Amino acid sequence: MILVPYDATEPKTRLAPVLGPGERGAFAAAMLRDVLTAVDNADHSHEISVLATEPIDSALAGVDVDLTVDVDDRPLTPAVNAVLADFDEPVAVLTADLPLITPATVVRLLGAGGADDVVLAAGRGGGTNAFVARHGAFRVDYHGVSYRDHQEGAQAVGAGVVELDTRRLATDIDEPADLVEILVHGDQTRAGRWLADAGVALEITDGRATVVRDE
Amino acid sequence: MILVPYDATEPKTRLAPVLGPGERGAFAAAMLRDVLTAVDNADHSHEISVLATEPIDSALAGVDVDLTVDVDDRPLTPAVNAVLADFDEPVAVLTADLPLITPATVVRLLGAGGADDVVLAAGRGGGTNAFVARHGAFRVDYHGVSYRDHQEGAQAVGAGVVELDTRRLATDIDEPADLVEILVHGDQTRAGRWLADAGVALEITDGRATVVRDE
User: Fold this and answer.
1) Taking CB atoms and an 8 Å limit, are A145 and B181 in contact across chains?
2) Which H/E stretch holds residue B106?
């Protein structure tokens, strides 16, 4: 199965310098729709499931993807581990804040590694943005530098560890500077169009580009 | 040929909050050695050349790689364009601040795209961290959001544009937060060992990991 955990309750609080509370919810929903659309358009036979902290009917408006929604209000780590413990088949987990994802990225992720491997795609700052667990004993721990913990956890249960080297899956959107990546590389995504409509634009300075909001 | 431009004059000024001027030079040299070692250990038959703003004998101490050093004190854009204009064969250009690079990454880069294509690997914030020019008319412009300019520039000369999706080449090291990536994913690189010796370490907070310096 392909599982997309989604914090519907108070998403993307670190974007507060740029977006208000309601906007953060709408923007998070746009990113979720980008992820689900890419997963749906990739060639695979996995079920798709959203693991949400509360019901998300409005976030899925306009999404024509065959999926189930499971509501679990526990923190991310126990909620994902409950799914991993339940399944005998490989489980791919993709966070919902990866708007640069494409069907090709999903295919690369699902095709990486072999039997008994755990495939890890790192996020910025030590996070784990996506993984495929092909070993039944692998469990997650999203606290702290999760990438390193997941490497060690996979080795501890006897799984092989395979790194998937992808910028598109490394680009999780948490902080205002991350929005630059959408404006440069994802202007045709739902998240990119949402930002453009909200007046969030690139600002070019001497170093890396930053974002400004015109209102 | 494989070209590695290197600012030997005043490298990595944006790391000033963490490293002093002499340290920035030593750290930049460690990253250069990581890049050159990965390029040398990858399977290919290209010449390797460092394009430096001034002579760099000390930065290359301990590097056992067959390479040439060309000194050109002009800014990056005209210096690289002079090389592109001189060569009839494909030219791969890799910036010198990519310590997470591995021989496998280099092989992926060199194998991407076909005749008349330009292969682009994006950096964070709109930059271009690596490319392969297989079209003789392609030129660079590193000012501003260079990735977008390079996409458009390649199309304007009739080249195909191929994106190489790689986190390792996307991770250029310019700002203190970038050091996290080395500490998490590159502790065995020369740059990683240099940081450990200098007392730069991970600090785990609620969001992404950051760095602290113990002195």
Assistant:
1) no
2) helix B103-111
Burial tier of B77 (Cβ tally within 10 Å: 0-12, 13-18, 19+) = middle
The pLDDT tens digits of the residues spanning B129-176 come to 999 999 999 999 998 899 999 999 999 999 999 999 999 999 999 999
Searching chain B, which residue's CA lies closest to the CA of residue A102? Answer: B165
Q: Tokens 């490394």 sit at which residue?
A: A170
- Residue whose C-alpha is closest to residue A199's, from A183, A179, A215, A178: A215
**CB–CB of A124 and B208 under 8 A?**
yes
The CATH number corresponding to B2-170 among 3.40.50.1820, 3.90.550.10, 2.30.30.30, 3.30.230.10 equals 3.90.550.10
Sign of CA dihedral B186, B171, B30, B60: positive
CB B118 within 8 A of CB B134: yes
The full set of domain ranges for chain B reads 2-170
Smallest CA–CA distance, residue B63 to chain A, in Å, is: 26
Tell me how far CA of residue A198 lies from CA of A98, A214, B99, in angstroms: 19, 8, 37
pTM of the predicted model as reported, rounded to 2 decimal places: 0.96
Tell me the residue type at A169: L
Question: ∠B8-B14-B19 over CA atoms, to 5°?
Answer: 80
Residues of chain B neighbouring A184 (CB-CB closer than 8 A)? 122, 125-126, 145, 147-148
Spatial CB neighbours of B152, under 8 Å, sequence gap ≥ 6:
none
DSSP B154: H
ipTM of the complex: 0.95
Mutate to test the interface with A, among B105, B119, B124 (most CBs of A within 10 A): B124
Instruction: Kindly state the greatest CA–CA separation across chain B.
Output: 54
The C-alpha of A68 sits at a distance from chain B's nearest C-alpha, in angstroms, of: 29
Q: What percent of chain A has pLDDT over 90?
A: 91
The span from the CA of A122 to the CA of A162, in Å, is 11
pLDDT, tens digit, 9 for 90 and up, residues A185-197: 999 999 999 999 9
DSSP string for A83-131: HHHH-SS-EEEE-S--TT--HHHHHHHHHSS-TTEEEEEE-TTS-EEEE
Put simply, whether A170 touches B (Cβ < 8 Å) is yes
Rounded Cα distance, A192 and B147, in Å: 17
In whole angstroms, give the CA distance from residue A203 to residue B9: 28
Nearest chain A residue to B101 by CA: give it.
Answer: A165
